[in-house]
Structure formats: C-alpha cells, structure tokens
Amino acid sequence: MVEEELAALARRYGVATRYTDWRGREIGVAPDTLRSVLAALGVDVSSPAAVLEELERERERERTRLLPPVVVARPGAGPPRPPGRPELTVELADGGALPFGDGETVPPGWHRLHARLGDRHESVPLLVAPRALARPERAWGFTVQLYSVPSSASWGIGDLHDLADLASWSARDLGAGFTLINPLHATETVPPVGPSPYSPMSRRFAAPLYLRVEDLPEFAALPAADRDRLSALGAPLRPDGDAARPIDRSAAWTAKLQALESLHRLPRGDAEQREFAEFRAREGGALTLFATWSALSEKHGPDWRGWPAELRDPGSRAVAGEAVRLADRVDFHSWLQWRLDGQLAAAQRAARDAGMPIGIVHDLAVGVAHGGADSWMYRDLFAPGMSVGAPPDEFNQRGQDWGQPPWHPRRLAEAAYAPFRDMLAAAFRHGGGLRLDHAMQVSRLWWVPEGGSPADGTYVRYDRDALLGCLAWEADRAGAVVVGEDLGTVEPEVREALAAHGVLGTSLLWFEQDDRGRPRPARRWREPSLATVGTHDMPPVTGFVHGDHIELRDRLGLLTRPRADEEDDHRRRLAGWVGVLHAEGLLPAPPETVLRALADGSAEYDDAVVAALHAFLVRTPARLVGVSLADAVGERRTQNQPGTVDEYPNWRVPLADAAGRPVLLDDLPSRALPAVEPLRSMAGEAGRVSPGSP
C-alpha cells in the first residue's frame, strides 16, 4: 500500500514509475529511485505518513487551482479549459483586454491571462505561440566541430573568423545553405578548460575562447609593434602538422586571455563606451550575474559548490560586495561577451552575404555543468542531487550520466520559463537556426540520482506544450529553423509534437531501418528532418565502414557482448547498405567486391562509398541534408566516444584526412571532396520541392 501511494505521488509530479526500454521491455522503477527524485523536487517522502500528507496536498491543489503557472495557446487551437470553466480574460501586452474565447482573437506574443470563478481570481502569463514554424527550403550544409578546424591564422583552435570563412566558402563555391556547428557555450574562466562543448558553464552566454583576437577593434587601433607583440602570443599554438596532438583548449585560452586583458585595459572612445553600455543594458541582470560568477570563479574555482558559503547564493549581500570589489573583472567579462556578440554577428552576416539562405545553425546542449554559472545564477530552478543522462540503449548499453543538473519542472514554470526563453533568444540572435541536442529535453529527461548508476534513474516530465511554445515563439521572431535531435528512445508523441510545431527531426542513415532491420528506402524517409549519415558520437563514414568503432569500444572495455557478435551485426548492417547503394546505381562495383575490400582494410572504395551514401541522402525527401566535414575530408577518428572521459581524447581530435594528415581550413578549397559532389545539385532544388504545410 505504501509503494502504491508513493507511485501515485510520483505520477502527480510527472515522475515515471515504469518505462519501456530500448528492447521494448517494460521496466518498473525502484521505490528508492522514486524517493530520491521526489526529494529533489522538494517533496517530503521521509515516512509513509509524509507521503500521505503530500499526496493529499497535491489532490487539494488540483481541486482548487484555476490555472497552471503558464498557459500556452496556438492560433486556432482554442483557449484552455480549466476545471470549473472560469471566466477567462486576456490582458494584452500592449494594453487593453478581451475575453479569451478563441485563440485567433489574441495576437501572438506574451500576455496575461486572468481567470475568475466566484470570488476566486488567478492571473498567469499567457503565450500565444505560432501555429507552426515555416519549413525551410531544401538545402545542404556542413556539420562541423568548429574547434577542430583551425586555419593557419588561428590560435590552435577554430574560431569565429574561421567560421565566417568556412560558411562563406561553402556557400559561394559549393552551394551550401547552412553551417551547423557545435555549441559555443561558455567554458571555465581559468584553465583547465573542459573539452566537451556539451558540458558548458553556461548555455546563455558564449565562450571567449572562440574570439579572433586580431579582429577586435582594439587590436586594429594598436601601433604595429604592439599588434605584432600580441599576435606572437598565438604563434606557438598555430598548427604544426601533427594531427595526433590533441587540441589544447587550456593553452589556447591562456594565450588569448593574456591578449584580451591587454586590449581591455585600453581606453575606450565615447562611441564605444556608449555601445558597450547599451549592450549591458540590453543583456540586463543576467549578464551582470554571469560576469560576477566569472570574476568569482577566477578566485575560487569554476565549481561554486566549493566556494565560501556566503558566496553560493547569487542574491546575497556578500556576492554584491564582491561584485563591487571585483568591478574591473566584472567589466572585463562583460566586455568579452560584447565582443563575442559582434563576432557572432559578423559570422552570420558573412554566411548570408555569401548566399546562404539559413546561415549558421547553432547547437544547444541539453544541460550545464553542476557547478557552473547557470546552475549558480538560477540555483533555485535546478533540482539538487540529480544528474541528467540516458537509460541503457543499443549503443550505450550501460546507460549515460552526463553530470548535469536538470531544471526543476515546477519552479521553471513558475518563473514563466524566463531563463529558458532568454537562452533561446540569445542563440537565435546571430544564427539562422538552432539544433536541440537530445530534443527530448522539451518533454522528459532521464534523472539519475547522484552516486547511482544511470540504469537506476527514471524519466521526469516537463510541460512539453509550454516549452515547445516558447521555442516556436523565439524561433518565429528570428525567422529561424529548428532541428531536434530525436534519436534513441523517443516517445512517438514527442516526434509528433515536434513536427506539429514545425521542428525538424533528425534522420541518421545508419539507424534508418524498416521493421525487419533492412535499410529504409529513400522515398520512405521523413521529409521534415535533417538527414545525415552519422553523428559526432560515431566514427566518420570511413572509420565506420572499416569497423573502427568496434575495435575502439573493445579496447576501452565498453562492449557488453562478445566482439564477434558486434562484428557480425556490423557486417550485416554494412552489407545491407552496400547492396542498396549498388541497386540504386550509386555504387557501380559489385557489393561483394566492395565488402571484401573493406574487410581486408583496403581503401580502394572508401571515397566511392562516401559519395554514394551522400547521394542516397539527396534522394530522400529530407528538407535539410548535413555533411560532416570529417566525412568530406576522409577523417576516420570519432570526435567523442560515449562512455569515456579521459580514456579517449573526446572533443580534442583535430581534423585530418584518411592518411592522418592534418587538414586546415586553408586547405579545403583545393581538396577533392567526394561527399559534396552529389549535393551540389540541391542548391537549385528549392523551387522544385513542395514546401509542405507551415
């Protein structure tokens, strides 16, 4: 009886008591997991009596509540129908009021909804979101881990100037319509700098690591001798021809930090000072808090949980006092974000000026580091003692713990999703699109109690309609495309909801199979999607077809079944795709000849297979087709091996070709790119493809 009441309480808080695993089996969630998750949500589950009291309190809240914390409506969908059917009135953002009887009568945007029932009155934010985002014209583009593609002029890591050049060249010379890059989220302020772009300090602000020092106005104003002195700081970091040497973010940031501090100390003219002040005013308190965290982290370390107790609360008097004492450093970190804003804008402008209809597509990580800036700034909106991850699946059979605190669903809603909305607005400001890493973040997340195994977690639900409404509103305002990474264990209704809001899905060739495990025919792929061959968590095509991932996972002890079984499955999968490519006329050589060469380690057909796979993507109806730059140049090494931290140089692999020779941005225009050739025709396809319903 006690466990039944615990389960009932969990369900009222959106905590799953059962779930379906990747094999289709129904799994019951352990009571200890439910207690841990509920406690993180602020629910008293310390005794059976406490559970009963909390359950009754929830029932009473549902009986008496007129409105949820935020109401989201879409044109034509009609207003919400709260219990008791109270009178609903909308207080419009620009003044005035009207009855909320039809969603069509309320203009899109944020308003305030009032509900009256007898002598009871409640008022909450109301968002009237777009019916759906318009689908983009058909286009292809590179998917790029920007840090891995330095030029001869960058400081050991691909930067925003490199991004502008890459986008301009691929648009102008190859007909690319977008460039999708890794998250540029803020990193640690002092070395060591963590390698993963998907475990940032903040998703709201960007990493100064990506600044091009020589492009700053302050640098241009220096005398020649001073410019040479600062440029010399980057000389030891410039590429040396060693593709085996991992990217060293800490070394790059140490050098850039010295240069940036020198430039920040220079006096500003009146016009610049006015522009900087306007930027700070626009960004408001969030920028001040982030810059304060940055200044404090330089002194006390990047994990605020280890700071003096009085500094762990961003609203404390001690923090306010430190912000005054560290005013110059707060100014410095605010200035860095201002200059990043300018270089991000320049990259998108360069992409659009070169003819890209979309331009830069940014990537939004699923979460932030436990002790980082966002979890300090919005401390009360995160659930303590929990980490976001993923349950065991086919490719990560031990499950995953990403070491990131989850949003507290109710508290985030009570804050009208303001931090989430601000994060989206910042991402759309200087980009034509956004990719949502782990798109399930708008619907449910796998919560893992700290110290437990990922397999001991459970799903916790969020208000999907509200989060998708916020996303669609911000994207529509920016005229941007949104792509959701809806891979792995995804509820069908999530994909349906994403599509209904105009969010494109993600289709990976290696995973596209029919019910019998055979390659899915091109005509049966989803149209509203971004189609690619693989992902950054897998080897590039050349490495995959040769089975590099199996050897690597075996060497690292990540396989949960015999290597021979993995190899048998790989051969079957590969044989299926090689057969399809041959049958489609995309790979002339007989399948058995190609497969024998691959099994023997021969590179004879590598380029032909890469080209054929991407030609197949062109034959699908997918709106967007992505080509990994690693695939384009023949790289074999994966950027990230899930399940490892230091056992593999995750997110530190510089771009190289099949022979292991480094590939700089400067080299790309003169290289043959077999993966790209089949995609050039897409530049003229937009008018021949049905745009679909918006």
Automatic annotation (TrEMBL):
<comment type="similarity">
    <text>Belongs to the disproportionating enzyme family.</text>
</comment>
<dbReference type="InterPro" id="IPR003385">
    <property type="entry name" value="Glyco_hydro_77"/>
</dbReference>
<keyword id="KW-0119">Carbohydrate metabolism</keyword>
<dbReference type="Pfam" id="PF02446">
    <property type="entry name" value="Glyco_hydro_77"/>
</dbReference>
<dbReference type="InterPro" id="IPR017853">
    <property type="entry name" value="GH"/>
</dbReference>
<keyword id="KW-0808">Transferase</keyword>
<keyword id="KW-0328">Glycosyltransferase</keyword>
<protein>
    <recommendedName>
        <fullName>4-alpha-glucanotransferase</fullName>
        <ecNumber>2.4.1.25</ecNumber>
    </recommendedName>
</protein>
<dbReference type="GO" id="GO:0004134">
    <property type="term" value="F:4-alpha-glucanotransferase activity"/>
</dbReference>
